[in-house]
Structure formats: structure tokens, C-alpha cells
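Memo to structure team: turn this sequence into C-alpha cells by end of day. - J.P.
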Amino acid sequence: MTTLERATAVARLPAGPMEYRLEPRGKAAVIVFHGGHMRAGLTLGEEVFSAAGYTVLVPSRPGYGRTPLQTGTSPGGFADATSELCRHLGIDQVAAVVGISAGGRTAVTMAARHPELAQRLILESALGFLPWPGRRLRLGAPLAFSALVEKATWAAVRALLRRSPAAGLRTMLGGLSTEPIDKVLAALSDEDRATLIALFSTMRSGRGFLNDLHSTPDMTSQVTQPTLIIASRKDGAVPFVHAQSLAAGIPHAEQILSDSDSHFIWFVHDYPLIANQIRVFLSADPSQRG
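Reply from structure team:
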């Protein structure tokens, strides 16, 4: 089976312990805040940065992996803790802060609170500051992801994916698209399916996902950096209106529409074009944009 797990470390910071993964390459770096059920050891959507020679820093957000919920807790607190991590690692500036899915709020908040550190902001299928989630998830999440049952929930997911990968993938992708599931699956290559099965098989929620359900102050108007927002209208996990709201609220934002049938914009025919737009965005002088 494809593996997405990579080695991580834990930094002891004034804010508390923080798990992170640092992959050194060039002098320029990006920080990636992954979304729900993800931790620093898992990879998703990072290839465009690593292939371009960027050093990639991925922290586990509060409650995920080996970062306790008390380290930062809120997007604002964790943005400040991540700034501490950068100082600890000798990173004075990053080319971009990247927020994926539920990591979007932390990325926006970090760009707003630490403009001296972050030159740009990139948001991919990102959660904004509108009310979220819907009633169904808000009621169901405490039942499926509480401290008492979270481990059993993911054990059941892994068992299903081992026993019947096709059925497991159908189940996991069902809520991540507004399109019929057969259409979503038909658009995936065998390699994409293997990657997604591996990803779902290694996810955990810890205490992080329930923490992600809390509302947080909207920081969009305080972002001064050039911002790239990438989203699909067919995203079933984060409604497209979040991308529209982020684009309307951030002063220097441009928006790219993905043709993805689901939340996963990296597994679609137009992603190579999007990746090229990301590279162009990163190479442009941030002081000359917007």
C-alpha cells in the first residue's frame, strides 16, 4: 500500500510542545497547515512546493498528532506558537503560509498576525470564517470523534478499507463532493485511488477535529499579503461560499477555480495548470502584487 507517513520531531516551545516536520531544500520556505484529521507526518498537496525547491515546514495543529490541544488551542494562539517554532528553527521569513481545508483559518490568522514572517498566503479548499459546519456534522462529530470513540471510529475505517477498498473509498468520499459518488470515483486514476486509500487509512482526529468546530475571529480584512485562493464549486466538505467570502474579505486576493469533483483539488486533470499558477504566484515580487 502507498504510504504517506514521514518522520516528525517535537519542539519544546514557550507555548508548549509542537510536533512538526521540516524538509530542508532551498533557502526559501513555506509553512503548510493541513486540515482536519491530518498531522505533520502526513503529506497532501505539498509536491508543488517540494518540486520547486522550497523547504517545507508542516506543524501538527492543536490536538493532532503529538501537539497537545493546549499548545495554541485557537488559530490565533497557534499562529503565535508557529512563529515561535520558526524562531526555534532559525526561519526568519517564509515565502508563503499555506492553509488547506480546516487549516485555512490558522493560515489566514498567521498572515494577519505575523506579516513580517509571511510574504504570501495560499488557501486551498480552505475553511473561511463563515458559520461551519452544517447541522448534520455538528451533531454527528461529537459522537464519532469524542475522546472515547475516536480511536474506534478510525479503526472501523481502516478495517473497511482493508476488507473492501472500493467500498471504503466510496464511503469516505461520499461527503466530500456535491456530485454523484460514481462520477467522483470515475474521475480518479488508479494511482489517485491508492493515494486516497493510504491517506484515509492513516488519518486520526485526536482532539483536534472537535476543536476545529469552534468559531474564531475573522481576520481576513487584516491580511496585507498577496493571496491565492483555490477552490472547487463541487466541494462537499467546505462549501464554495467560503472561498468567495475569503476572496471578498482579503484585500489583495485572487481566486482560481478548480474543476475537481470533490474537496481534493490535487486529484483532477486541471491540477498541473493550477500548480503552475502557484509557482508563478510564488515567484512574483510580493510587494508588486495587488
